[in-house]
Design brief:
The chain is built from four helices and 35 strands. The protein has about 525 residues and is mainly beta.
């Protein structure tokens, strides 16, 4: 599932520099449109053989350099209103996105085709003009900030979409659907949006309808997209119609990058102290437990499934917002958005699944997180889901427990003495909630660490205040290796009556020195 996104984003970045693109509406008559009819359309398509989108060979020639020779006409964007967050500009085809998508504009319950026209571009060279004429199509779209200064939402390539979030910095991506992402012996399938219907909604929102198609499934999607000061939200509703039985259906898939942080400094071959779009998976279980699983860059492909019933939410978060921890004033990792999935309705039994792959560079999206329903996916069935996506810069909702803010690993034993062979040390710093109000003299008999180790042996665990950081406490855990190359650690801090911290899960790979 590793995606080399840097080449794609470089090309996309060139297109973003182009300004505004639009096209004229065709003279073709509009037709009635509704969400219910779109669902019926997806169901009907699922009964026929899959028809893949065909790439335009001319688009191969529209690389980064050619893209910089093309400018959109700024007066042609859709839903063009002063000071609005809903103006839409479409992406042309390019080397990284060669398959044309059908577009329609929805107004007053009717949909009108939206036609490609190269005359809506300002093109500075004959070579670029000829390629644009031959490419003949759109590859996606983006929604602009007021005045056309950057965008806050973009859809392009397969079923990928992303938001710059409240800090105006792109990072991780979401997908409409993923299939067989973490299945041994299976080749992952990448469903793609083939058709978009765009509508200007209430309160400056943009409503996006789409058909998603692939060899195994066809579906109808509805996104209600809204930008606010503290979050970009998307209410997603979908109806899926499988053509075949599917081994692993991945709902609300998120895709991110984690190379290294303070927890795996052995990977830090670059001069920057940390490089990651997200630093952990957060889960709010159906039973009310708050879980934090720091991301790792494993020595081999690793899948972890966290069983749950009616989850309250999950997401990939970027908790570390300190510029000094990254030192990158070009791509600003400290501003990358977090993405939270909040189920709407009861999702039933299943598992939040975390998929981690090894990487030695920052251009790979090597992290995936998604929901896998327990109920098998059968051909001919109908599957309905709804959820809210929140692109945020803080926690997705108030949390009354202390959060894990740092995770370190190192050799076992006491500092200043020789390392203990076959042992590792795990250090977790907590902040906020009841921990922030603890008296530094509180004995461990009252506030004590609870640590469970699978495939390893707990040597000792201590919880104490950090002398130089008021309100922060540190858990240190020493673990001895067993015969297994991987140890799973589960830990939290227990108070007199209840837990004081979220539950932290960590997977320790002993092959990493």
């Amino acid at each position: 599932m590793i995606i080399n996104r840097r080449e794609h984003l470089a090309s996309l970045g060139a297109l973003i520099l182009l300004g505004s693109q639009s096209a004229r509406l065709t003279a073709a008559a509009s037709e009635p449109f509704s969400w219910e009819n779109l669902i019926k359309r997806a169901q009907a398509l699922s009964k026929n053989a899959y028809q893949p989108l065909k790439a335009r060979t001319a688009a191969e020639g529209i690389d980064y350099d050619i893209a910089t020779q093309i400018s959109y006409r700024a007066d042609k964007q859709l839903f063009n209103q002063p000071n609005s967050h809903s103006s839409v500009r479409l992406f042309p085809l390019s080397r990284s996105a060669q398959k044309p998508i059908n577009f329609f504009i929805v107004a007053d319950g009717r949909a009108t085709p939206f036609q490609y026209d190269p005359a809506t571009f300002d093109i500075r060279t004959p070579v670029a003009a000829e390629l644009m004429k031959q490419s003949d199509g759109f590859s996606g779209f983006r929604v602009m900030n007021p005045g056309g200064v950057g965008d806050w939402l973009a859809y392009q390539s397969a079923s990928y979409f992303r938001s710059a979030g409240p800090l105006s910095q792109y990072g991780l991506s979401a997908r409409g659907l993923a299939i067989d992402t973490a299945m041994p012996g299976k080749v992952e399938e990448f469903p793609a949006f083939s058709d978009f219907w765009l509508e200007h909604g209430a309160k400056d929102s943009v409503i996006v309808y789409a058909i998603l198609d692939s060899p195994s499934i066809c579906g109808a999607y509805r996104f209600v997209n809204q930008k606010a000061q503290k979050a970009v939200t998307q209410e997603v509703t979908l109806s899926l119609f499988p053509r075949t039985d599917i081994a692993q259906l991945c709902i609300a898939p998120l895709t991110s990058m984690f190379w290294y942080s303070e927890s795996n400094r052995d990977k830090a071959v670059d001069w920057r102290p940390e490089i990651h779009d997200s630093d952990g998976l957060a889960i709010y279980t159906g039973s009310g437990e708050r879980i934090w699983r720091p991301l790792i860059n494993p020595p081999k492909v690793t899948t972890n499934s966290f069983l749950d019933n009616a989850p309250k939410g999950f997401g990939l978060l970027q908790r570390d917002r300190n510029f000094d921890h990254y030192q990158d004033d070009g791509v600003f990792y400290e501003k990358r958005p977090s993405l939270w999935v909040e189920p709407m309705g009861q999702w039933g039994k299943g598992a939040v699944t975390l998929y981690e792959m090894p990487t030695t560079r920052e251009i790979d999206d090597n992290i995936g997180a998604f929901w896998v329903p327990e109920k098998p996916t059968k051909a001919g069935s109908r599957i309905d889901f709804a959820y809210r996506l929140s692109w945020i810069s803080d926690e997705p909702e108030p949390i009354h427990l202390a959060r894990a803010i740092n995770v370190f690993t190192g050799v076992g034993g006491r500092p200043g003495l020789d390392p203990v062979p076959g042992q590792r040390k795990l250090v977790v710093d907590f902040e906020g909630g009841p921990v922030g109000r603890l008296d530094p003299n509180t004995p461990e008999s009252i506030v004590k660490p609870v640590v469970d180790v699978t495939n390893g042996k707990l040597i000792e665990a201590h919880f104490r205040p950090i002398v130089a950081a008021k309100g922060k406490w540190r858990l240190t855990v020493d673990i001895a290796r067993s015969e297994s190359p991987v140890s799973d650690i589960r830990m939290f801090i227990q108070g007199a009556e209840s837990a004081l911290t979220e539950t932290v899960l960590y997977q320790l790979h002993w092959t990493v020195v």
